[in-house]
Structure formats: C-alpha cells, structure tokens
From TrEMBL:
UniProt-annotated stretches for the region Disordered: 1124-1157
UniProt protein name: Chorein N-terminal domain-containing protein
Entry-linked PANTHER family: CHOREIN N-TERMINAL DOMAIN-CONTAINING PROTEIN
Entry-linked InterPro entries: BLTP3A/B
Biased composition range(s): Low complexity: 1130-1149
Amino acid sequence: MEAILARALEYTLKYWLKSFSRDQFKLQGRTVQLSNLEINGDALHASMGLPPALNVTKAKVGKFEIILPYFSNAQVEPIVIQIDKLDLVLEENSELDASSGPNSTHSSSSSSKGSGYGFADKLADGMTIQVTTVNLLLETRGGAQCGGGATWASPLASITIRNLLLYTTNENWQVVNLKEARDFSNNKKFIYVFKKLEWESLSIDLLPHPDMFADASLACAQEGAPQRDDDGAKRVFFGGERFLEGISGEAYITMQRTELNSPLGLEVQLHIPETICPALSEPGLRAFLRFMTGLYVCLNRGDVDLQAQQRSKEAAGRSLVSIVVDHIFLCIKDSEFQLELLMQSLLFSRATVSDGSIANNLTKVMLGGMFLRDTFSRPPCILVQPSMQAITENDGRIPDFAKNFCPPIYPLGDHQWQKNAGTPLIRLHSLQLKPSPVPPSFASQTVIICQPLMIHLQEESCLRITSFLADGIAVNPGDILPDFSVNSVAFVLKELDVIIPLDVSQLHNPADNGNWTVHNAFAGARLHIENLFFSESPKLKLRLLNLEKDAACFCLWDGQPIDASQKKWTTGASHLTLSLETSSSLNGMLNSNGMTSGTWRCVELQDASVEVAMISADGNPLTNVPPPGGIVRVGVACQQYFSNTSVEQLFFVLDLYAYLGRVSEKIASVGKDRRQKINRNESSGVRLMDKVPCDTAVSLAVKELRLRFLESSASDIEGMPLVQFIGEDLYIKVAHRTLGGAIAISSSIYWQSVEVDCVETEGSLAYENGTQTSFVENGCLVAANGYPQLRAVFWVHNGHKYQANGITRTIPFLDISMVHVIPLSELDRECHSLSVSACISGVRLGGGMNYAEALLHRFGVLGPDGGPSEGLSKGLENLSTGPLSKLFKGSPLIDNLKEDASPVDGKDGVLLLGIPDDVDVCIEFKDWLFALEGVQEMADRWWFYNHEDEGREERCWHTSFQSLLVKAKSGPKNEQNGKGKPNGKRKYPVELVTVGVEGLQTVKPQGQKGVSMPANGIKEVVETSEGINIEVSIVASEENIDDEMANWAVENLKFSVKQPIEAVVTKDELQHLALLCKSEVDAMGRIAAGVLKLLKLEGSIGQAAIDQLSNLGSEGFDKIFTPDKLSKGTSPASTSFSPSPHASFSPSPRVINESPRTTVESTVASLEEAVLDSQAKLAALFTDLSTSESSAQHLADIKQLGRKLASMQSLVMQLRNKI
C-alpha cells in the first residue's frame, strides 16, 4: 500500500524537482530521505505568484525528508515534508532577455494538469511542509541599466526565514483532517485548497552590489578615506546592513481550480503585526531606497512579453497578493541627524488577471496614518503628520477601473484584520496593462486620494530628505513603460498645511537687529490649501484653454484619437491662504477656519487652477517638455485674489522668499540625479528655434482682484488699510508662433474694471499735535465701522456699446492687443513689424497733487524734509541686496546660444530685437474725467457734506474729454529707379503721427445741465457732443534724411465745435483756480524733488534746481495775479484761503494792502479766534441743553457741529505751521 503512496508522490516530485529519477526515491518504512535537490524554478514561480520580470535562477534544498502516513489514513492525514535549508535566488530579467524567459524543461506530468482531480493531486494539496531555514537572495536591476557608476547600483536583498510551516486548513483557516478540508468544494463549481503559512522569524539584510567592489573609484573608501561625496552625502555602501530582524507573521493562501483541476485563481494574504527597524544608517537608507525603486521597476515593467514566457501551466489566470502590516517603525540614525518614521495600517495588494497574452495588474495601497519626526533637532519636531482637523466625511470612492476588477478568489470575504473601519490617510489605485498596449488604449491609470496633511518644513531635514529621495526614488523615463504608451494620473489632497519657520534675526547683520522690531514679530509662515488636485491624461477636459476654438490644437479636440504625442495636465485648489505666523501661533491649534488665532492672512486665492496642453511637432511620443517645434498651451485662472500687505509684512515675505530661494538652490544641488548626465557636446550647435516650441500661448484670468496696503504698526500686526486696489475681470494672453523665417509674438490684455481707494489724511495733524478729535484715529479719518475712511482716487465708469444684433456690450477699462513680427535673419529685417491697438476707457481721477503728496508722507515714502524717508531708504537698500535684485539681472541664455549656434543659410537662430521697420500704433483714451480737488474742496467736503462722495465734481474744477486718439504709422515704402524694388529698411519707423481730441471741456465748481448721478461720486456727462474737437497730424520731413533725429512738421490742424460753448467765469473763480493750480504745481514740484533725491541725483542736478522745483508754482502763478495788475480786493492775499461758495466767510478790508505773509498770518489769527469763540459758545449751549428737556436730536446735531469745529481748528493749525 505504501508503494501506491510512493508512486503517487513520485508523480508530484517529478513536477517540482529537476532531474528527478525513480532511483532516487528509496522508501525506508514510511520515510524517504533525499539531499541536494534542485527545485523546478518555473513551478515555484507559478505557485508563488511572482511577477513575470523575475526569474527563479536557483532553488536548491539540502536535506529533503518525506514522512508518509499510513495508507488507511492517506485521505485524512497529510504527507509531511521536512527541509533543513532552502536556498533561492530571484533575479530580474534584463531588457535583452525580458521576452525570452527561462528555458527550463518541464516534466511530462505537467501536461496532465487539467485532466482531473486525482489521488496524487489530493495528496499534493494536503502536504505539510516544514523548512528550518529559507535563504532568499533578490537582485533587481532598477536604474542600473542607465549607468551612473557602481555607487548607484541597486543593492541586493538577503531574506532569511526561520521555522517556516505550510499546512492545509479548512475555509476558516482551522486545522482539520484533509477530508473535511476538501468537503468545502463539494457541490461547488470550483476546487478550493486553503493553506496557512507561518514563520517564526524573518530578517532582511541589504548587501552591496558586486559591481561596487570592482569599481576602482571606490577603492579608496575601503582603505579608510572619507566616505562622503562632494555634496556631503554618504552613499558608499560596503559590508551590508541589516534592515529588519525578528519579524514574525502569517499568510493565508487560497488556490482555486476548475472541476478539471486546471489552475484558475491564487490568493496570498500576508499579515505582519509589527515591523521595527531600530537603527538604519545613512548609507543603508540610501541603499534601501534604491532597492525599493528597483523592486518597483521590476514589478511594473511593461516590456515583458507574456506569450514568450514559458512558465508552468500551474500558473493561475487570476492572482491576488496582499500584505498588511499593522505597525511600522523606522529609525534613521546618524551622527548628525535622526529621523523616525511611524506608519499604521499599511495595506499593499496586487491583483493580476491574465489570459496568457495580456495581463491586467491592479495595485492598491492604503495607509491609515503616518508620522515623520526629526528627533535630532531641539526641540524635536514632527515633520509630517495627519491634520488635526477631524475628517467629516468618509470618502470611499473607488475608481471605475478598480470596480469589479477581479472576481473574488477566497469565497468568504475579507478577514477580520483586513477590515478597516476608519478612512485611510492615503489611498492609491493603479491599473497597468502588460505588455503596454498601443494607443488609444491606456497603458496605466493611477488615482491617489489623500486626507488632510500637515507638513513642517525645516531646512536641514528638507535637504536630507530631498537627497534621500533623489538618490532612490527618482525613476528614469522608459524604465517602466515605453514612450509610446498612454497614461493617466489623478491626485487629490483634501487639505494641506505647510508651516515654514523663519528667524529673521539670523538672516541679517546682528548690528541691524534693532531695525527689525516689528519685523521680528513674525516667526514664520503657514500655507493652507484646500482640495488640491493634479491630473494628467490626454482625455482631460480643459475649460480654460478652450481648445475647441483653437485651430492649431485640432488633434486635441473631442473625438480625435489620442496617443503619446499629446499631453494634458491640470492642477489647482479651491482655496489657498498664505498667512504670517507669530511666535505664539506657529505651533498652535487650528480653528474652524483652518487658521490659528495668531495668524495674519497675507494672500488668499479662491478656485485657482492651471491647465497645460502640449503636442509634439512630428507626432512622435512627447518625451521632452516643452516639445521642440511643438505646440504648447498654458492657462492660469483664479476666481478671487485677495492680498493684505504692510511694509513690515512685505519685507518679511521678501526675506521668506529669499530664504526659500536659498533652500531651493541647495535642494537642487543635492537633488541632482546623477544617473542622467547630459552630454553638452550633443546639444552644441543647436539653434534657439530648434529648442523651443513653434506655437505657444499663455493666458491669465483673474475674476476678482483686491489688494490692500496696510499701515505699519508696532501694536497691531495687521495695521489699518491705507490703500485698496480693486480689479475685476482681468485677462492677459501672450502667444508666439514661428512663421518660417520669423516669429510672431502677440499679446492681449482685457480688464473690465479698476478702482483705487486711498485713506483720508485731513485729520493727521490734529492727532500729531495732541488735539485728536473723536473721528480721528492714527492720523486717519475713521468711519462708523471702525475702519479708516477710504476715498476713491481712481476708478472706472464702464459704458455700454449697442451692437447691431441688439446685444449690449460693456466697454472694458483696458483693451490692448499687440502683434510683433521678429525675423530670425538679418536678410529679412524688412519683415520686422509692430502693431499695437489699445483702448483705455472710462477712467476717473479724483484728488490732486496735494493729496498725492499727503499720501506719500502718510505712507512713509517722503520724509519731513521732502526727501525719501529713512524707512524707505533702508527698505530699498534691503531690496537691492535681496531676492528681487536677481530678477533684474541679465540672463546668459542668449549669449550661450550664440556661442553654440552655427549659422545656416544666413540664419543664426537669435532673434533680432532692433527697431521695427513697420509700425502701426493706435491708442485711444475714451471718456476720461479729471477732478481737481484741493485742500479747500476737501475741507468743504468734510465740513458741509457729511463726508459723502456724491457730486464731487460740483464742488471742484474738472476736465473731461470723450476721446483722445493717438495714431502712429510708418509711411509707404518708396520705389527706387522705377524698377519696383523697395529702398530697403526705413530710416525712421514712424513717419506719421495723428493726435485728436473730441469733447474736451473744463467745468467750474457748480451744477451742470444734462448730468446723471452714478456711483463713486462723479456725475457722468450724458451729452457727448459738447466740448472742443482738435486734431493734429505730424509727419516726418524728408529733408536732412542723413540726420539721426527726424525733423517733424505739422501737416494738418483741425479745430471744431459741434455746439455753442458757454464760458462764464468770475474773477474770484479765476483767482481761486490760479491758486489751486499753483498749489498743485507746488506739490508736483516737491514730489519731483523727492523723486530726484530718492534717485540720488541732487549732486548732478544741483541743490538750486531742487529748491526751484520745490517752489515751482510760486515762481509763475504769483506773477499772474500781482497787486499792481489787479484791482483792489483781488490780491492773492484776499483769495489764498477764501472759502467755497457754500461758506459765509469774507476777508477783512484791512488786509488788502498788506504783504502776503502778514495777510495770511492775520487771516489765520482771525479764523483761530472765531473758531475758539464758536467752541466756547457751543460748549455753553451744550451745557444748557443737557440740563433741559430738549430732544436728543438737537444734542446729536450739536455734537456733530463740535466735531466739524474741531476739524476746522486742526486745519487752522496746519495753516499756521506752514507759514
């Protein structure tokens, strides 16, 4: 009977062992002992579910002992196989033999698979295998084929498993007799075999690649020389290092066969409770990352031909291998740093469905939690961790390609330890087809969803981690998928908080630390991003680029076939906030808005996105970005952009920018991938136009733009708003296209509306002189809501244009288009042309130069002496040495190209940026209005109009025009000698200039007919036919053609009036206008003098010229209305500070014939006396009314009158200080 068992066992051994003969099988009772046997690598490969890129090159056992049960118990008791040592070597196929596969011969017994489930098959399925020691050597070739030296070779992994036990169980993984285990398959359409694998200990050693010992350049490192590279990294890996030790675990194996015993499915589920790596050195970590990269490349290579793989027929068509690790702890310890990585609930599974020629692989990775700490720094810092925000929703979305991918192999569902109740931190699904299919089929599809993360950036840690990842994680193009393959990637990150600590005092000279008091109030920055996404796929719908209306991108239209010559990317976020952190809030908890209590929001973006589309020039796979000679489209859009900035915060952000720039340069230096070395000789002689795309377009769209400049304050880091800039519907597009021997660069700007509001400054002196009123705060007039009152100084009135189809179109503020054609060769210089068309409509300007000067003083731009303030000078000095100075440095790109370029047919490949030969410029200023508001007009506004902006033009002089058109054109090219040949390049690009003004009018401070009341306080003129029309045409004279400067002559002058003009002005109004212009010119001169001092030109211009600029208006306007030319009562003294027509003040007759200074002093004294007397009477009246039963409305009116008198007193003090 035992002979029957032996014969059945011999049938199984012939399948599993190489060169097995019956003579080796000698039964001694119920025991068979064999030794030095080689296992069939193909059979082992199929039973373990190994990827096709791996070969079992060696599988040898030491002592092989078989213990047979009694024949009567053969149906219920297993055959026990005991092996003392099993040596396995797994080696990745090279690219040359990837499709050849192993050439091992198979036993004839394998051909009988699928003929039925016989007695020998049942014995084989019920075997129990005990292995004392398993030695597995794994060698991959990840990145080694790309060169880079022996230092970059992927190391070997030596895996040692002790006391391994494999036995048969029932469907619930319980040990029962074999008959009960087979009963589950009864009345089923499949045959199920359940096995459980256990091991006592597992250790992994990383060994250096053998090529490393043969590298002569590394021989010195073995002899005790410094083992650091030029960038300070330790990469030399000699002697090996133990990565893991003492890892126990178990595996649950399910084999599914058809009723005819043909292999159908294999599922292996490994469960490891805990994995600990207590100490890993820097060279060991770099070697481990290179090994993992090599293993990743090996698992995902798409160049393996499955039909050429002569694997065993035991290989199942469906396989699922999953690994679950409950806890992972990895410590990287070195003399200079220490990092700790803790991961929880890691799941890795790989499902394969194959029909023998094509294999579909679905990879799933889930991570429950992750913490990365830097324990070397003091205090220790958590670099990466899940966000403290609670996850409100359980996003269990599964990509469509991962749904119903593979029918279940284990029939009873997931195990209890596989069921994860919580939402994983990271979820990855990736589908890959092998071999890679031709387009338009996708070769791979990947979806990554990540829950909220918090990252704390530290310079040293970032540099080291970047160096680690650059050494091991970077994968060369073409290592996994061929260039012709089509792929898609989608990444979603729910929330991301990036904390950037920064100590400004360490970035500047210690002697200057006293100048950064408020500056040092910030300890870092926090970047908060919500719903961050990134997608790459040729099938993306790009709404920003509007490719359906782009004829050059016809191959990207819907319905067109896709291939590897097309690339589409999109990235964006629903909300992005950059905040500055105080030292108390840098490590604080987040509130419900995602911010800490001590943060100051600097920049906010809503619905920001970027879209990119590219096409190669010749239809070949797009491997170089951007594609040389191809087509590129880039679109950037933002729904809302808000910014709050003060001087201190601006300089802190600039310091942060400089710091990040320095760190980025260090990261770029340590992150170089040395496996990819570009030979500069290969790129020499390539022209500029051969390196760039031939058709490029970049667009920027911002729906709402709001910028606020805040006041500097040592007590309040957010300060008070001083300037507010509001813009709506901004669209900018720049494109270039290569046209044979020239490049056409086109740009367009469309801006719907703009508004600039500035703070009121009338109450500043009242505060500075200690007489602050109830409505003045920090030198600003404060509104009822507690914020400073802002006044519009620049805004837009959008008109409407009625089209022929009846649709009304809003006229934008700015509409500019430009086309610049630049030849590539000197021979085509006559093709150099420039065409510009611009229309600036609806501009409204309020205030005046006095107000601008006051704002410059208020903002700290100008100091008390009229020159640049101390803070501005220090700020400019810091900027000149800061990061912005690098933006204005010349780039050596063109010079390098000139050195490498080789002229071909007169073309040197460098753009000719000379003066255009053909110019056509048309600039139109449509519907503009200038309101001239002086000190007196603003005083009237605050005294009598309750600070309202309505009807501002009624109280001030203003000028408007309907159209100001400027045209500049080149003249027609003349013929030479009557032969019809052009005379070559013109001497002057512009030969005809036409300037025309329509509807020019100046209105004095009084109500006008035919006006309507709009927003922003300026009444818009409805009648467009009023005013003066002027047109001037200027041409370049043909005389003196050899001169460098052209001689211009007026060719035509037109002056017309469509309707009668009524000009009514009194002498007092003219005097007031003259004095107002004098004050404005004086302010303009002082501003110009301050600018000259800022540019440090007072030495070359002279102090006398600076002084003359400061009194520019007094030099001219005082002579217009001198006392000898004016009648008595109209002297400048009597009109210098005359109130508006709404006031009741009149000058005293005794000051008419006095000098101007004496008259001003006496006038101020009279005003001061009148104000004080009025305040005294008002106080007495207020006291009487307070004791009586008068209404509260009277008391409110008296209080308001008191505030106005206080404002009048501050203005009087301002006048006295200016005398």
